[in-house]
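Lab meeting notes turned into a lecture example. A postdoc, R.K., suggested we walk through two folding results consecutively so the class can see how the record format repeats. The first protein's sequence and structure tokens come next.
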Amino acid sequence: MPLREALSPSSSGETPGRGWSVLVVEDSPLQRRLLGDHLRSLGFVVRLEPAAPDALASLSEARPDAILCDIVLPGVDGFALCRAIKADPALDAVPVVLVTSTDVDESDRLLASRAGAAALVARRPGYDAVVEALVGVLDEAPTGGETDAGATLADLRDRFLAEGREEVDRLLDRVAPDADWADLSRAAHRWIGRGGTLGYPGIGERARELEAAAAEHEPGTARRVLESLARMFAGALAAHAEADGERAPEPRPPGSGPRAPVALDGPREVVLADDDEAVLAIVRTTLRNHGWRCHLARNGVEALALVRRIRPAAVIVDVNMPGRDGFEVLAELRAGAATRNVPVLLLTARHQEVDVLRGFDLGAADYVVKPFNPLELSARLNRLVHSSE
């Protein structure tokens, strides 16, 4: 399907803009009006400004989801405006897409990269490339009300320990022969996934014992495991509190390494689907540092929609998700003519052989069991993409 048709509101029943707010900075009155009208027709909420000073004044009043800025502006050009935005702590997380009316050359690409732009795109009639770049950076950006995927590893660990300690107390009060075993199983699943990934493998392994006890409806075993988890969470929290005053500079997530140089117009795209915000955050950070553009989905329905629209180089999908689980997503992708060849890596806390075999029977390219090392996940993702080329 041509891109313009794919982006048409009438072709899919939904608009790609999804109510995202965009500040458009364009000095040409005609281009400003045409681009603004086009973005509004696609579901974006648009504000229009003719120059950098007007844009900065507008940004002081309201922060948009993204900024679309022409390179050539009167007085302060688009590169300088982008640098000013990225220098402001209140605005530096807002993605900036720079637009040029000519072909993108290496000098412009270098200037855009140094300015901190999320993308650099040539404007053509129809604005397809502009819209595609805009939707791409917005898909990648964290949204309000959700865990900030740019949170530091220490933030994620602190949140995991504090929330875990509270949840253990809640569950201990409810362990009985008629306990809500599904509730216990969900908590265990979260701790299995997050524990090892965030650096607490002992919590992850003990959570596996809780998952087994919940499956067998064994209140005595469940209580003993929960009491052990309570001590583990409390001990880790105490260690963090003791170290708060002398914490070293924040380390990168395990295996993330330095950020790889990526061309503004050429990072490989991956759809990452998991209902665990902490896992999304740490995996996204690692993959971005290794040259990937991540599009995030919190359930199977979102994952399928993203894959069909973006046509990514690969998909990472958690097996246990609300709505359609990872197996269902995989089966549906394999059934579609346009998606059957996209490599899919399954990510799950399930480690039974029957689950692994089911994933491969459905067409998974690889299977990673939580807890996992993000560096290993990145390496396996690169390997499966290269092998599919």
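The second example is placed directly after the first for contrast:
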Amino acid sequence: PNTGGMGSYSMKDHLMPFISKDDVNVALEDMKKTVAAVKAETGVEYKGFLYGQFMKTANGIKLIEFNSRLGDPEAMNILPLLKDNFIDICWAIINGSLPKTIEFKKKATVCKYLAPEGYPVNPKKDEKLIIDKERLVKIGAKCYYASVYRDGRDIFTTTSRALGILGISDSLEEAEIISELGVGCIKGKLFHRKDVGTRNLLQKRIEHMNSLLN
């Protein structure tokens, strides 16, 4: 069964060892052409976020889908690195005055999602979560609330991904350690992918890409 994304990671240079700047530019051009085509067909200029999902193949970059929203969990990786004011950016999108350059910090990030046990087939809902906020701060991890609800002062699970735990550092290895330590600050009937952002997983992705391209 399919799940929502259980984690995401980004390198300090905002690329990947298996994704080149040229690959990114190809995807970006596809997105620009799509926005232009929408305006040409409807007469309406698209204003908002456009989340493009692409796949790198032996025959180049291929489009899977577009979504009119930020990526989930990818937004958790990029927004904390944003140097500019997010609200100002949103207003600039609406007013058509968006600057050509928006700056992000040069940091690596790893985000790991915690989901209820049994997700996605038979998730355990209404389970209480205990979050050690003080320890999260000491570790330097960030916790993002997703599909949970509050009853009084307590947080409970629903039927989907519950919490995103983010680590930020100068290297992917350090960011992954922070994220994993942050996961340890959460108690409850949850599970997560421990391999997200690890050197072993990254090496597997590199080897897989090399096998496709060579």
